[in-house]
Amino acid sequence: MKIHVNGDPVELPEGTTLAELLQRLGHAPEAVGSAVEGRHVPRAARAARVLADGESVTLFQPIVGG
After folding, report:
1. Are 57 and 51 in contact (CB under 8 A)?
2. pTM attached to this predicted model
3. Which of 3, 9, 11, 63 is the most buried (most CB within 10 A)?
4. Tens of pLDDT, residues 22-55
5. Number of domains comprising the chain
């Protein structure tokens, strides 16, 4: 299947989760924020979030502080 990560096409096997995508891309889970189709996906939900063909994933640096 093909998805888009920050606008770039990425080929993945069917059934790949968001957590697996981050691992494939070499991102530490705590170092990146994530959204699928514009909706935030919390770290704890990434392993259960199965990606579908054509979906758009956005990865970003989380902002901390006050």
Report:
1. yes
2. 0.91
3. 3
4. 999 999 988 999 999 999 999 999 999 999 999 9
5. 1
11 within 8 A of 38, measured Cβ to Cβ: no
Strands 56-60 and 2-5, sheet pairing: parallel
Residue 43 near residue 29 (C-beta atoms within 8 A): yes
- CATH at residue 38: 3.10.20.30
Residue 26 within a domain: yes
